[in-house]
Amino acid sequence: MTSRRYLPALVFLFVGSGCAALIYEIVWFQLLQLVIGSSSISLGILLGTFMGGMCLGSLLLPRAVSARQHPLRVYASLEAGIGVLGLLILVGMPLVGGLYTAWAGEGMFSVFVRAIVAGVCLLPPTMLMGATLPAISRWVKATPEGISWLGFFYGGNIVGGVAGSLVAGFYLLRVYDVNVATFVAVALNAVVAGAAYLVAGKAEYEAPHTTAGFVPVEPRATPKGSAGVYAAIALSGATALASEVVWTRLLSLHFGATVYTFALILSVFLVGLGVGSTVASMVARDQIAARRALGWCQLLLCAAVAWAAYQLTESLTYWPINPSISTSPWYTFQLDMVRCLWVVLPAAILWGASFPLALAAVASTDVDAARLAGGVYAANTVGAIVGSLVTTFALIPWIGSSHSEQVIIITSALSSLLMLEPAYSSKAAVKATAEVADNAEPKRSAGAARSAVASWNVAGTVVLAIAMVSAGLLARSVHALPGLLVAYGRYAATRIGQADIIYVGEGLNATVAVSELSNGVRNYHNAGKVQASSEPQDMRLQRMLGHMTTLVPRQTKKVLVIGCGAGVTAGAVSIDPALEHETIAEIEPLVPRVVSTYFAENNFDVVRNPKVHVRIDDARHFVETTGERFDAITSDPLDPWVKGAAMLYTQEFFRMAKSHLNPGGVMTLFVQLYESNEAAVKSEIATFLDVFPNGVVWGNTSEGRGYDLVLLGPVDPITIDVDSINAKLQRPEYARVAQSLHEIGMTSAVDLFSTYAGRKPDLEPWLRDAQITHDKDLRLQYLAGMGLNLYQADVIYADMLKYVSKSPDDLFSGSEHTKQTLLAAIRSAPGR
C-alpha cells in the first residue's frame, strides 16, 4: 500500500500532539487550581475529569464518526479542535472563575460544583485528545503490522509528552506565563493538523466495504476472549497511576517538592512508558505470544515496584548527599534525574510495554481497529483513574505508602495471572499449539502437539506457582516509611541520630512528622523540612506574626489564620482578649488534629479554644468563596517553592485578601530568608507592597543575623501608637499576651517594633528588578525553586537594610521619650 510510506511521518505528528497535550495539562491544572483550589479533592476531580474525558473520547469516536471518513482528516480535525478549545479555555477562565465563586458552597455541594467546573473546562478538549489514537487506527487496520504501528504512535505521543512536560515546567512557565505556553501548544496543534491534512490528500484510504451503496459493513467491536486482556490492562493502568502517586510523594521528599521536581518525575515516568511501548511495538506480532508477554510484564512489575520501594525507603534515604554544597541548582537537578531514573525507569518501561502488547493480544482482522484501540485505551484509562483516586483518597491516608506499594505488587500479580493462567492452561494451550503445528508443520500429528503441550503445562504451572509465591515475598519485603526521610527529606543522610521522630503521619495532602531534639526542642516537618519549631528564633517569628496581627489594627474581633503548622501563630492570636472569633484555614487535616497537639504548651492549646474554628480547605479557595470579612488576616503558608504554595503569594490573592478586610484591618505575612534566594525574597516583598503600599517590613534575627521577615499590610495608612499598645499590655486581661512576648525576649511594645526593617519608599531602589507574581505565571514558585538548598539569609537581610536609612518618624506616635527610645532601638537592632 502506497500510504505505508507516510507511517513514519505520523509518528512525528503524534510527538507534536503529545507535546501540546502535556503543555495543556500543566497549564489547565494550574489555571483550574486557582479557581477550585489545590486540595487533594480538587486535584482528584481535575485528574479524574482529565482522564475521564480521554476515556470517553476513545470510546465514542468509533461510534460517532463513520469509518468512511479518511482517518487522517478526522485526526487533523481533532487536533484543530483541541487548539481552538485550548484558546477558549484560556480566554474564558476568568468567566468560569467568577461563576464558580458565585455558586461555590461548602461540603458535598462544593465538591459537586467543582466537578461541574472541571467537566465544563476539561471534558471537551480531553475527549478530542482521547479520540486521536482510535481515529488513526482505522488507517493502519487491526493487522499485526498495523497494531505494531499503533504502538509506535503511542510511543511517539509519550515522547512528545516528555518534551511538553520539560518545556512547560523548566522554560515556558518559568520564563513566560500560561498565555505563552498555551500559544505554543496551539501552534503545535495547528502544525500537526495542517500536516495531517496534507498527508490525507496524498495517502490512500480504503474504507470498509459498503452495501446499498453507502452504508459501511461494520466489523465486530471486539474479538472473542478479550475480556481478560481488558481486565489486565485496566489493572496495569491502576498500578501505574497508583505507583506514580506514591512515588511522587516520596521522591518529592528526597528532592524537595518544587515544580521542577514534579516536572522531572513526570518526565522520567513518561520516558519509561515511551521506551517500553516502542520496544514492545517491535515484537508484538503474535496474539498468543503477546498475551503471554503481557502477563510476564505484569509479573515483572512486582519486582520493579518492590525495587522502587526498597530504593525509596532503604537506599536513597542514606545516600551520602548534601544538596547545600552544590554550586548550582542545575547540578542538583542532574543528580535528582539520575536518582529518579534509578527508581522509576524499570517499572515505567514495563507499563509502557503493556499497552501495545494488550493491543496485539486482542488484534483481529475482523475487528474495527478504532473500537479495538479505543477499548484498550479506555480500559487502561479507567484503571488509571481508579488507581490514582483510590490511592490518593483511601490507601495512603488509611494504610500508608508502604502498604499501598504492597497492594500494588499483589494487584500486578493478579493481573499477570489473568494472562498467564489461560495461556498455560491445558485446553487453551493445546488448542493454540495444535493450530500452530497444523499451519507450520502439516505432517506433524495433532497428538504429538498435544503431548508436547501437556509436558509444558506441568512446567508452566510450577513456574507460575513459584512466581506467585515470589510476588508475595516481594510484597512482604516492602519496609515502612522511615521517619528520618519524612522529617528531613533531601538532608536525611546528614541528620542521622540528631533527633527522635515521635510522630509520622501520611495524610490526604501531605506527609508530616514531629521530632524532638535532646534539649527538648520540637520541630514540625512538612515537605521534607522543618516548617515550625519551638526553637527560640522560630518562636520569636511566630509570636511576632500573631501579636502584630492583633495589636496593630483598630479592632481584632475576627481574625483569619492561613496555615496552622505548629499552631504558635494561631495561638498568639487566640489569647488576645479582644478576639471573638478565629478561623484557621489548613489544607492538611493531620496538622490541626494531631501535629498541633504536640505543641500545645507553645500554642496555648489553640485547637481546643472555643473561639477557634478550623476549616480544612485550601486557604485561597476558602478566601475566594467565603462571604466573611475579617479585622485581620495572617498568613504563614508552606515555603513558596513547595508546589501550589505560590498561589498564596500572588498579586491577585493579596488583593482578594484585602477585599475581605474591614476598614482599619491589616494583613501579615511570613517571608523566609533561609533556603531562598534574593530574587524570590524580592518578588514576595514587591508583590505584597504593590497591593499594600503602606506596608511595613519587620525583621527577625538569629544570632544577630537576618533569619526571616514579617510583612504588615494595612488597608489604610496607619500610625502605630506605641504608648497605647504599652498601656494595653499592662492591663490584667492582657497578661497572657505580655507573657507571650516576654518569652521571646520582648518586654514592651518598644522591643516589638524595634524590629522595623523598612517600608516601600525605602526599599523601592532595592526592589527595582523584582518580579511581581501573578496568577497567570506563579513566578515565585520558579524563582524560589532555584534557592531551596541555599542558606543566604544573613546576606539577603544585610543587603536589604543598606537601603533603609531614613528614620520612620511618621510611622509611630507616642510621647517624645517613647519615640526617641524606639528609634534608638531600631538603629541598634541586630543585623544592622
Sum this structure up briefly.
With about 850 residues, the chain is of the alpha/beta class. Helices cover about 60% and strands about 10% of the residues.
Keywords for this entry:
832 residues, alpha/beta, Growth Hormone, Chain: A, 8-stranded mixed β-sheet, 4-stranded antiparallel β-sheet, 62% helix, 10% strand
CATH class of the largest domain: Alpha Beta
The coarse silhouette is: elongated
Low-confidence stretches: 210-219, 426-446, 448-455
Distance between the termini: 80 Å
Number of helices: 28
Give the C-alpha Rg: 30 Å
What would the average pLDDT be, to the nearest integer? 90
Strands, count: 16
Overall number of structural domains: 4
- CATH architectural type of the largest domain: 3-Layer(aba) Sandwich
